[in-house]
Every structure is written in C-alpha cells, then in structure tokens.
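A quick aside before the break. I want you to see a complete sequence-to-structure record at least once, exactly as it would be stored in a machine-readable document. Don't worry about memorizing anything.
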Amino acid sequence: MSKKDSSMEVQKQEAAPAEEMERTRSRRRFVPRSDIYETDGEIIVVADVPGASDKTVDITLEKNILSINAFVEPVRSGGYTLAYAEYDEGDYERSFQLSDEIDREKIEATVSNGVLRLRLPKARAARTRKISVREK
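That is the input. The structure line, written in tokens, reads:
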C-alpha cells in the first residue's frame, strides 16, 4: 500500500505518549500491535488487545480519526503473590486517520480471545473497478 494511495495513515508506536491528555486511570498504556490488510472493497485492521472483551473496548470515530481504547483489569490469582513477571499489564490506545475513501456508516468491529478485528469498507466511489474496452 503506497502512502499516496493509502486509505489510512499509520504510525508505528510501542507505548502511548503520556503527555497528550489527562487520564483517570493510573495504568500503563500500550499501542496495540496491528496488522492492516487491504482488498478492493475494504480494509481490515487486526489489533492485539490481550485481556480485552467487547465490554471493555471502546471505538470512536470523530472527524477522520478512528480511536481504539481497550481497558484491561489486572488478573490476580487468589492466594499467590507475584514473584516475577515478564508480561506487563495495562490499557491499549491507538488512533488511525481515515481518508474519505472509507464508508464510515458501515464500519464493524469484533473482539475475540484478545484480538480486535475492524472491518472498514471502502466507499463505492473508492473501489477498484474494471473498465471494459470496446472496439470502435
């Protein structure tokens, strides 16, 4: 997907910037790793949000910014004290800037087993179409 033709602008980030806004939760924020697939008719975004569910994921579209927020509650094992951890818990935040090629009314989102899938259909005018050539 070339930058000129892209329907979304993506910037790679590992952790969300801390100074952008005030937060009511004092938890670490992560930028979920995402894969983006494009077909003639749609763009699919697959994002890792381990520990999130349909009740804890919030997706908003304001102006041309699609924002993903996933809130994950810490998992505590009863009767055990954590001695060592390699997995860091926190919330997830990521935003994508959409072009006018996306049909905003038909965006769909599902989450299953910590994987968020966004389906962003392209507007009819933005879809690739075959133009027939006739002999004159």
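Two observations worth writing down. The longest strand covers residues 91-98. The radius of gyration is 19 Å. We'll return to this after the break.
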